[in-house]
Amino acid sequence: MKLILRTHVNRTFQQVWKGFDETLFRRLSPPFPPVRVVRFEGCRKGDTVELELDFLLFKQRWTSVITEQQSTNAEIFFIDEGVKLPFFLSYWQHRHRIIKDGEHAVIADEIEFRTPFLLTNFLFYPLLYAQFLYRKPIYRKIFS
C-alpha cells in the first residue's frame, strides 16, 4: 500500500535538509507507541536507524537502512528501507522528499508498506496515516 503526505514549510529546501537530524527524528515520534532510538547514524546512503517500539506488553525492534540519497537544484531526498521490522510489517520503504517550492519547501513523506496479510494492509493504512499526520504541525513549527 502507498501513503503520501505533504507539508508546506516556510524555509528553503536546503535549510530543511540541514534540520533533518536526530533531534528532529525524536520530535517526530508520536506518543504511542513510545520509541527509543537505539542507533541513529543519519540520513545519508548506508546510514542505519534502529528503534525499539514499546507496546507496553511487548517491545519490537525496527531497523532501517538508508539505501539512497540524492540532491538536485529542485529536491533533496533519501530512502529508508526496513531490514528488521516489527511482526506486523513485512515490507517498508519510506521516501523522504524535500522539494523546492519557490523560496519555501514541501516535505513529502511517501511510504510504501505491506503487512503479512492483505486484509491487515487496509487495517493498518489509517493507523499509519495518523502516525504521519502527527508530523505535519511539528514540521511547520520547526521550519517556520
TrEMBL record:
<protein>
    <recommendedName>
        <fullName>Ligand-binding SRPBCC domain-containing protein</fullName>
    </recommendedName>
</protein>
<dbReference type="InterPro" id="IPR023393">
    <property type="entry name" value="START-like_dom_sf"/>
</dbReference>
